[in-house]
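Backbone-to-sequence.
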C-alpha cells in the first residue's frame, strides 16, 4: 500500500553510513512497577499533579517492557542498521547505587541479544533523564557531586554486563535539558527552579560524563567500542548583526558549557563571567575539568530546529511573570518565532538548511571527531486509516521532514562534514515528557488503549532508505 507513494531517489549514502531509529526507556517501556524496578525522578514528577499534560505518566507508555519481541520484529522489518535506546538506571539499580537488580539487567541483555540476532547494532545511552529517585533524595540528584560517582559505578556495571556485545555507547542524552529544564526552569523532572542549581547540575553531568567514559573504557570488551555523548548542541543564528551578543550568550550557556569541559578541557571564560550573579562556580574542584575531558570516538548531535536570537536591551519583566527565566541570562535573549517557517505539532520551525550548516560548522569546530545525528524527527497530528478503510497512517509531513533532513545531511557531507550516521526520533509514538501523549513522533503509530502498533508511511520510507542507502522520495507531495 505504501509502496506506490515512495520512489527511488538519487542521493546515496556510503554502505557503512549508519541508519536507524531511537527511543528512550521512560518514554516507551512502561512496566514501571515490575521486574524489581525502582522509582525514577520522572515517576515522581509525572505523578505530581500539574506537571505533565493531562497528568500523563510513563507507567504504561508504549508497554515496550512487555512487547520487546514485537518491537524487535518491527525493527527487523524496517531493515534498521542500528537501534538507539536508553537503559533505565533504576531498573538495573533500584536505588541508584549498591544493589544490582538481575532482572533489570536481564531485560537489557535480552534486548541486545534480540537486536544482534536480527543484525541490528545496539546503540546504548546510559542516562536519558530517568535518574533514580533515591539519588535525588540522598544527594539532591545532579546537584550532588556524589551522583557523578554513582553514575561512574553504574557505567561500569553496564559496561561489564553488555560490553561484550555492545560496541556503541553514549553517556548522557542532552545534559542541557537534564540540568536547565530539570533544575532551572522546572519544566522537567525533578522540577526545581534555581539557576544556581542548574549550573551545578550541568557541572556534575560533565564530571559524570568523564568518569563514565573512563569506566566504559575499562569494562567494554567489544573490539569496535565507540564511546560518545549525545548533545543537543543548538544551531544559533542572530537575527541581525547587532544580535551577535545574544548568540554568544546562548552558545555559552547552552552549548559551550558542555563542549568546553568535555571536549576542550575548560569552561569558557565568558560563560563564567556571564553567570557570576548566580554562582561562584566553587563546585568545580581542582582536577575536575581534566576528569571531564576524556577522548571520545563519536559526537552525538540531536537536531530539531534553529534558534533565531535577538538581544533584548534590558531585563524584561514579562519573562519573569511567566514563572521565571528559562536559563541564566535568558532575560537578555529573545527566541524569535519566524513567521515564514512551516512548523511541526511541537510548534518547532522546520529548517533542514539549519542542520546542513550546523553539521558543517561542527565538523570544523571539532576536527577529527565523527558526528552521528542521534535524534531528528517531527511530531504531527496523524490520522489512522484511509478512505478505503485500511489501517494505515499516511504521514506525508513527517516523511517529507525526514527526506529533507536526510538530504541536508547528505549535502553537509558533500561540504566536508564528517557525519557517519542518521538516527530518526522515534521508532514508536511515546511519552513526550511534560507534553505527555499528545505529540506523536513515531514512525510507528501506537494506539495507547490497545497498544496496537501500526507502521506509518515514514517507516516504509526508512525501510527503503536502510535497504538501499539511497534517500527515497515521495511520488506525490
Ligand atoms: C529530545 C529528547 C527526546 C525526545 C525529543 C522529541 O529533546 O532527547 O527524548 O523527547 O526531544
Amino acid at each position: 500500500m505504501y509502496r506506490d507513494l515512495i520512489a527511488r531517489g538519487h542521493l546515496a549514502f556510503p554502505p557503512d553510513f549508519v541508519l536507524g531509529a531511537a527511543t528512550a526507556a521512560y518514554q516507551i517501556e512502561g512496566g514501571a512497577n515490575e521486574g524489581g524496578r525502582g522509582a525514577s525522578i520522572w515517576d515522581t514528577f509525572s505523578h505530581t499533579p500539574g506537571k505533565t499534560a493531562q497528568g500523563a505518566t510513563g507507567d504504561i507508555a508504549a508497554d515496550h517492557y512487555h512487547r520487546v519481541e514485537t518491537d524487535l520484529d518491527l525493527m527487523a522489518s524496517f531493515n534498521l542498521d542500528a537501534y538507539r535506546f536508553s537503559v533505565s538506571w533504576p531498573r538495573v539499580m533500584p536505588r541508584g547505587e549498591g544493589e544490582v537488580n538481575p532482572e533489570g539487567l536481564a531485560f537489557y541483555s535480552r534486548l541486545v541479544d534480540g537486536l544482534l540476532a536480527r543484525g541490528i547494532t545496539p546503540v546504548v545511552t546510559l542516562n536519558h533523564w530517568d535518574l533514580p529517585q533515591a539519588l535525588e533524595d540522598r544527594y539532591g540528584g545532579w546537584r550532588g557531586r556524589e551522583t557523578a560517582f554513582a553514575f561512574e559505578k553504574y557505567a561500569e556495571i553496564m559496561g561489564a554486563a553488555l560490553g561484550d556485545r555492545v560496541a556503541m555507547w553514549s553517556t548522557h542524552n542532552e545534559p542541557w535539558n537534564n540540568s536547565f529544564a530539570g533544575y532551572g526552569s522546572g519544566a522537567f523532572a525533578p522540577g526545581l527552579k534555581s539557576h544556581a542549581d542548574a549550573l551545578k547540575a550541568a557541572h556534575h553531568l560533565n564530571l559524570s560524563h568523564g568518569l563514565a567514559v573512563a569506566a566504559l573504557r575499562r569494562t567494554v570488551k567489544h573490539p569496535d567500542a565507540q564511546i560518545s555523548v549525545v548533545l543537543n548542541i543548538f544551531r544559533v543564528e542572530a537575527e541581525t548583526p547587532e544580535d551577535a551578543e545574544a548568540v554568544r550568550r546562548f552558545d555559552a550557556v547552552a552549548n559551550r558549557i558542555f563542549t568546553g569541559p568535555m571536549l576542550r578541557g575548560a569552561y569558557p571564560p565568558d560563560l563564567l563571567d556571564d553567570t557570576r550573579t548566580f554562582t561562584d562556580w566553587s563546585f568545580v574542584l581542582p582536577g575536575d575539568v581534566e576528569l571531564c575531558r576524556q577522548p571520545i570516538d563519536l559526537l552525538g548531535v540531536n537536531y530539531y530546529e534553529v534558534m533565531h536570537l535577538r538581544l533584548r536591551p534590558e531585563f524584561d519583566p514579562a519573562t519573569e511573570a511567566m514563572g521565571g527565566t528559562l536559563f541564566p541570562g535568558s532575560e537578555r535573549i529573545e527566541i524569535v518565532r519566524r513567521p515564514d517557517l512551516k512548523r511541526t505539532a511541537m510548534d518547532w520551525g522546520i529548517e533542514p538548511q539549519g542542520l546542513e550548516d550546523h553539521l558543517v560548522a561542527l565538523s570544523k569546530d571539532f576536527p577529527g571527531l565523527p558526528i552521528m545525528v542521534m535524534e531528528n524527527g517531527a511530531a504531527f497530528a496523524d490520522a489512522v486509516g484511509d478512505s478505503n478503510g485500511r489501517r494505515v497512517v499516511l504521514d506525508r509531513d513527517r516523511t517529507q521532514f525526514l527526506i529533507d533532513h536526510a538530504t541536508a545531511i547528505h549535502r553537509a557531507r558533500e561540504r566536508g562534514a564528517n557525519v557517519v550516521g542518521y538516527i530518526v526520533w522515534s521508532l514508536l509514538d511515546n511519552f513526550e515528557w511534560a507534553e505527555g501523549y499528545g505529540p506523536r513522533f513515531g514512525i510507528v503509530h501506537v494506539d495507547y488503549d490497545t497498544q496496537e502498533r501500526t507502521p506509518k508511511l515514514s517507516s516504509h520510507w526508512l525501510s527503503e532508505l536502510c535497504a538501499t542507502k539511497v534517500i527515497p522520495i515521495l511520488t506525490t507531495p
